[in-house]
Amino acid sequence: MNALTLTALTGALVGLGLFLLVRALAPGKKGAVASVAEIDALRARAATHQPGSTAAQDAKGFAAVRARLGARIGDLYLRQGWELRSLRSDLDVLERGWENFLATKVLLGAAGLFFGPFLFSVAWLIGFGRSPLIPVWLALFFAALFFMLPDLEVRRDAAAKRRDLRRVVGAYLDLVAMNLAGGRGLPEALKAASEVSEGWALRRIRDTLADARITGQSQWAALGDLGVRLGVDELKDLSASLALVADDGAKVRASLSSRAETMRHRELAEIEGSAGEKSQSMLVAQLMLCAGFLVFLIYPAAMRVFQI
After folding, report:
1. Which of 80, 85, 283, 287: CA 20 to 30 A from 297?
2. Residue 226 belongs to a domain
């Protein structure tokens, strides 16, 4: 395969990629399914008060372009049926917008397309790499890598915030049990326990309880819906147990106390397991350091013995 064929193949691949990108971001005539999906998307935005649509109108410059790009990609995901519920749940935990996240992914992927050839040009200037296919593969590799980096960051940060939320839920259950022991009813106890702190976890619980009072939904059902959105099983289990024993104050206190104790034991076990893993890592590092020190001591003697 000569250089002319490789150049033509490279141009065809790049052109195909650009065509697919433009086709995805600027689709042609909409069909009936796409129109219904767009109506559903607008209804969902109006119901959840997502800031993406207003941001596209109020923002200027790069922020406006990013907001419009995110809205287009969000509509594309909706038309294709790509729900990505786990990722949406992680974004809900971090209180980040879905459309802004999609725009960030695409922009980073586009930056990766230029970063790969730029890296190749630097290597080419110092004498490494001559094949015309190398920049193409580098562009595709870095585009895919940069496109996936926001997912990794979101999953890592969401896992950390879920651990914090589980700790707060354990303390929250104890506070609710204490309020019930003081003679308050279950709705008042749930509300009072959520007002002891301004942290993000109790703020989410407090806002959920306030919305439940406005909409007429039971507070434990609202907590269960919050657990579904955030992917926290403890809140879903709490909702189910409260729905069963909501009318009996003594059973509620006993259930909440036992559940809080179980969560504390589980958290303690996780902390001990994490500490054990860190101890093992430190042990391996110390063994490697000792091995290097032994090589440093033995090397001069071995050189003299073997007369190297």
Report:
1. 283
2. yes
Q: Which two tokens stand for residue 80?
A: 């294709």
Integer Rg of the chain from CA? 28
Tell me which residue has tokens 């509509």: 75
Distance CA 260, CA 241 (A): 13
H or E element in which residue 207 lies: helix 200-215
Distant-in-sequence, close-in-space partners of 188: CB < 8 Å, separation ≥ 6? 179
List the single range of 20-24, 65-69, 111-115, 138-142 with lowest mean pLDDT.
20-24
In a domain, 108, yes or no: no
Beta carbons of 171 and 145 less than 8 angstroms apart: no
- What tokens does 118 get? 């730029």
Does residue 276 sit within a domain?
no
CA 83 – CA 224 distance, rounded (Å): 21
DSSP letter string, 142-175:
HHHHHHHHHHHHHHHHHHHHHHHHHHHHHHHHHH
- pLDDT tens across 179-237, in order? 887 777 778 888 888 888 888 888 888 888 888 888 888 888 888 888 888 888 888 88
At 247 the three-state DSSP class reads coil
Counting the structural domains of the chain, the total is 1
Q: Does residue 243 belong to any structural domain of this protein?
A: yes
Measured over the CA atoms of residue 122, residue 124, residue 125 and residue 126, the dihedral's sign is: positive
pLDDT score at 154: 92
Asked if 68 and 99 count as a contact pair (C-beta separation under 8 A), the reply is no
Spatial distance between the Cα atoms of 298 and 230, rounded to a whole number of angstroms:
57
Distance of CA 293 to the CA centre of its chain: 43
Domain, as residue range, for 177: 162-252
